[in-house]
Write a structure and sequence with these properties.
The protein is α+β, with helices and mostly antiparallel strands and 803 residues long. Among the domains are: 147-197 and 419-490, no CATH class; 226-414, Valyl/Leucyl/Isoleucyl-tRNA synthetase, editing domain (Isoleucyl-tRNA Synthetase, domain 2); 592-737, Isoleucyl-tRNA Synthetase, Domain 1; 740-802, Ubiquitin-like (UB roll) (Roll), CATH 3.10.20.590. 34% of the residues lie in helices and 19% in strands. It has 25 helices and 31 strands. The strands form 9 sheets. Strands 10, 11, 12, 13, 14, 15 and 18 form a 7-stranded mixed sheet that branches. It has a 4-stranded parallel sheet with strand order 2-1-24-25, with helices on one face. It has a 4-stranded antiparallel sheet with strand order 6-5-9-19. Strand 7 (171-172) and strand 8 (175-176) form a beta hairpin. Helix 17 packs across helix 18 (601-610), helix 20 (650-668) packs parallel to helix 22 and helix 22 runs antiparallel to helix 23 (709-719). The protein is globular. The structure holds ligand ANZ and zinc ion. Zinc ion binds next to loops.
Amino acid sequence: MEMYNPNAIEKKWQKHWDEEKPFKTEIDSNKEKFYALIEFPYPSGQGLHVGHPRPYTALDIVSRKRRLQGQNVLYPMGWDAFGLPAENYAIKNKVHPAIITEKNIKRFKEQLKSIGLSFDWDREINTTDPNYYKWTQWIFIKMFEKGLAYKKEMPINWCPSCKVGLANEEVVNGSCERCGSEVVHKVKNQWMLKITEYANRLIDDLSDVDYPEKIKSQQINWIGRSYGCELDFLIKDSEDKLKVYTTRPDTVFGATYMVIAVEHPLIEKYKNKIDNFDEILDYKNEVIKKSEFERTELNKSKTGVELKGIKAINPATGKEIPIFISDYVLMTYGTGAIMAVPAHDTRDYEFATKFNLPIVEVVSGGDISKEAYTDTETGIMINSGFLDGLSVKDAKEKIAEFIEDKGLGYKKTNFKLRDWVFTRQRYWGEPIPLVYCEDCGWVAVPEEELPVKLPEVKEYEPTDDGESPLAKIESYVNTICPKCGKPAKRETDTMPQWAGSSWYYLRYLDPKNKEALASKESIEYYAPVDWYNGGMEHTTLHLLYSRFWHKFLYDIGVVNTKEPYMKRTSHGMILGNNGEKMSKSRGNVINPDDIIRDFGADTLRTYEMFIGDFEKAVPWSENGVKGCRKFLEKVWKLQGIVNDKEEYTKELESIIHKTIKKITEDFENLKFNTAVAQLMTLLNEFNAHRSISKLDIKTFLILLNPVAPHITEEIWERIGFENHIYNTTWPVYDEKKTVDSTIELPIQVNGKLRSTLTVSKDESQENIMNQVKDIESINKYLDGKNIVKIIYVNGKIFNIVVK
Ligand code: ANZ
Ligand code: ZN
């Protein structure tokens, strides 16, 4: 037998799959479909990382198995190719980002092919392809037409180094997610998408999908729905009201002061009445420099300034209370003003302590001399007039009634979720397909004129005032109004990288369609995605954005399911061998190309599945890789012990059935590591047996095939089995046979263990006794004695009582 030579074998089968296209899928209404999706990568200049193949291999395994089980599997791949790295490279080297993107894609694709993933490459998509982004623009226009896209002057997070506006989500700890520079605020006219209009549905429809609880709660927390009240406080000696949002209207008797955001319009309005206006302005100017994150950081000491000269009236107590400005109240949430209840809110407590403001306990149960009492389950209302004696829950209802009856306010649901800032002042993104006409306002580019293609530019830098480089291209900017035909100007901002990935799973269904983003027929057959795996880092934003777009497409009749992804799973990261995150700077990056060259793709795949719990982060280990290579070498050598029998070897039958069962289940439950371990056990059993039948190895090869597709196809062919594994069927197990048929029966004499005997489970007492008599070590206890009784506890114990 030749030695195992993965490099030759793998190239051979990859070529075969490329030519024969066994993983190509087409609509077939006689077959049940299965749509497996993994997050398509950004084709970076660094190439593939060993973290990439982990999820790709996992769903490749599920896809390969489901195909053998008779399902029509769609497992596609593409490129999320707009984005800053290619653009930053373009700026530096003056190369068109499309050129560098194409080069990176070529490299990524070669690497992916060298892993032997069963993608249907005929469905490859690329978000930067005008035939693709035509439909990204089309969806945007539909949203614009439905009033979900609107332009708004608003403070945005501005990265001074990338010179780009960032979505809240792209600001991490007050810094730009991409370059790490400190983010400042800048006012810009931005296109916004009304994701908030879908906030309730984005929470409520989570009950229809199979996502891990952790991911569901991340989505729910991000949306941040809270039930409360809007409530008016009068400004003393005026008709003006200061409206607050509170989730604790029950505590209104304990509201001893108010706080408004530094941007609150009341400040300008009362400019002349406020005695310390200069001080107020100074404070405001300090605050607006800070990011929202810094402003709301919990454990920083509280600052603020009182608005001297005006007071508010607590509507419950009728008492005059002071009004402050402080950075901990944000203009962008609720009404930008709060009633402060220091006894029962931690931030208010700290503020009141620092500014010596009264702290009035209105819910008993805590010790407010030490800290705020925030429990809402057990406390009883006190110092609260008509609410006294009630539980918090009952008090909330009663006060809400009171507030509504007296016309002081109403119940209100609020969300933390903000509308989505949808514009970037950058080159390498989808142009926003809108035109501004002096007479008609903003007008959408007609569908026949899509896509609005990115024009050629010489410089890719945003302009210093933050406009996109497209703003400098007169031939692009100047156009005519699609409505009235007068000269008009194009929008020059582009879309964020999230746009193309918000609907890509639909384009895979029908990637070459010129008339629609996908045909009705393909959507009806393939959508929704049955199983979507991706990183934990994308479980709030990308998942939320794409669910939002999908719901919109549902509302306009493009798709017929409310949710895009029926099931979501997430893989853990692969760490460096020192347990740290892999990164160039730490010098612990493993290149998959090297592993494939030295050990083979099947070893890489097997190792990445065997490495540990799929959902947990795990360190890379060279020894682990070697162990998997050894396993595959042993698999290779099985060829030498195959006999001519066409049925399972009797003694191996039980473990084979057990293995089929375990693998079939494990592959569906993300337990790829225990599945591989079971195959290793079965291999050892095979070797211990010295000779195995053709059916034994056939089943083994099929079970291992999803994990190690090249070596298994090769052995299959060498043994001379019909066709290829990819067109065979998945083995089935017989539940009865998964139960052990033989047992190790303990044999006792007078209750003392003297030996064991391997017997069939349903062996008769008589037969066992006959065999026991032949055991020498037992014989000496029986010699010359009288057997008075035999106690056989079926399958468990065989006790001979002698005298
Ligand atoms: C009085 C009160 C008493 C409050 C109490 C809490 C506890 P969630 O649940 O996150 O929605 N708040 C309202 N608007 C705010 C803003 N723009 N900036 C900062 N804080 C704001 O939080 C709602 C609570 O956060 C509101 O209820 C309000 O304080 C505060 F014992 O009102 B509460
Ligand atoms: Zn016009």
